[in-house]
Amino acid sequence: MDLKGRPLGIWLLAIWCAAHIIPAILVSAEASGWRTFAIWLVVAVELAIAGGSLMHWAAARYALAAQIAVHISIAALVVWAFVFVAFAWGLHVSDAPIVASAVAYLLLGCWAFIYLFSPGVVDYFSGSARHAEGLRGGLFAPR
Question: Are 115 and 9 in contact (CB under 8 A)?
Answer without folding.
Answer: yes
